[in-house]
UniProtKB/TrEMBL annotation:
This is Uncharacterized protein LOC107469443. The keyword Nucleus applies. Keywords: Nucleus. Pfam families: zf-C3HC3H_KANSL2.
Length: 243
C-alpha cells in the first residue's frame, strides 16, 4: 500500500518588526536626560510606523472580508446557475417529503446550519422559494418568522390606520438600527423633515443630509402637536353640537 506523504512543515514565523530609527535610539540609550525635541521626534517616528502597521492590517482585513462576502453572496445570494433538470433538489426544513430514507436526517442537519452538500436550502415560509439565509431556515423577507432569531425586528412605522388599530410596516430591520425603520420609510422621514424645515423658513440643500438645529425641530414638532389638538377639539365640538 502507498504510504501517505509526510506532512508539510509549518511555515516559518514572520520576522520581528524593527523600529524605525533604532540605530539613532542606541546612541541615546545610555543617556539619563533627553531634550524635548529628541523625545518628540522619537515619539513621532514610532507613531507614524504604528499608523502604517495599523493601515496595513486594516486593508488586509478589508480584502479578507471582501472575499468572504463574495463567497457568502455566491452561496446564499443570487447565483447565476439555475437547475435545468426537472427534479428539484432543494431542501425545505420541516418538510418530511424531501427526506430520503438513508440520508435525509444527515442532510437536514447540515442544512440547518446552512453548510454541506450541493442542496440549496429554501425558505421554510409557505409559498416562498427564495434561498434561506445562513444558519437559519428563512430568507431575509421572512426572517421574523424564526422564533429563535435575535438580530432583526419589525419596522415600527405606521403603514395604515385601521379601525382596529395602527398597522405597522413590519419589514425586517436590524436591531442596531436607530430608529427602527426600513430604508423606504427612513428616506420618507428625511423628506418630511426637509419639508418641515423649509416651512420653518430654512433652506437646506436636497443633495445632502439635513443638519438642522435642535430648537428648530422642537418648534416644528410643537406646532404640529398644536395643530393636531386644534383639529381634534374642533371635531369634538362639532360632534357635541350635532347631538
Amino acid at each position: 500500500m502507498d504510504e501517505f506523504p509526510p506532512p508539510l512543515p509549518p511555515p516559518p514565523p514572520p520576522p520581528p518588526m524593527t523600529l524605525d530609527g533604532a540605530e539613532n535610539d542606541t546612541i541615546f540609550a545610555k543617556m539619563l536626560v533627553l531634550s524635548k525635541r529628541e523625545v518628540t521626534a522619537r515619539r513621532l517616528r514610532r507613531t507614524r510606523q504604528l499608523r502604517r502597521c495599523y493601515r496595513g492590517h486594516y486593508w488586509a482585513l478589508m480584502e479578507e472580508i471582501k472575499s468572504k462576502y463574495k463567497e457568502y453572496y455566491w452561496t446564499y445570494g443570487k447565483s447565476p446557475f439555475k437547475e435545468t433538470s426537472g427534479v428539484n433538489h432543494a431542501v425545505v426544513l420541516g418538510d418530511e417529503n424531501n427526506n430520503n430514507a438513508n440520508g435525509g436526517n444527515e442532510r437536514n442537519n447540515n442544512a440547518a446550519l446552512g453548510v454541506g452538500g450541493d442542496d440549496v436550502v429554501r425558505c421554510a415560509f409557505g409559498g416562498c422559494k427564495i434561498k434561506a439565509m445562513a444558519l437559519t431556515r428563512y430568507c431575509h423577507a421572512h426572517i421574523l418568522s424564526d422564533p429563535k432569531q435575535k438580530l432583526y425586528r419589525g419596522c415600527r412605522t405606521v403603514a395604515k390606520n385601521l379601525p382596529t388599530g395602527p398597522s405597522y410596516c413590519n419589514k425586517p430591520v436590524l436591531r442596531s438600527v436607530v430608529p427602527a425603520t426600513c430604508t423606504t420609510h427612513y428616506q420618507l422621514g428625511e423628506k418630511c423633515l426637509l419639508r418641515a424645515v423649509k416651512r420653518a423658513g430654512y433652506n437646506v440643500p436636497i443633495n445632502r443630509k439635513p443638519n438642522v438645529k435642535l430648537h428648530v425641530v422642537v418648534n416644528e414638532f410643537v406646532s404640529q402637536i398644536k395643530n393636531k389638538r386644534k383639529v381634534a377639539l374642533k371635531a369634538a365640538v362639532s360632534k357635541v353640537e350635532a347631538q
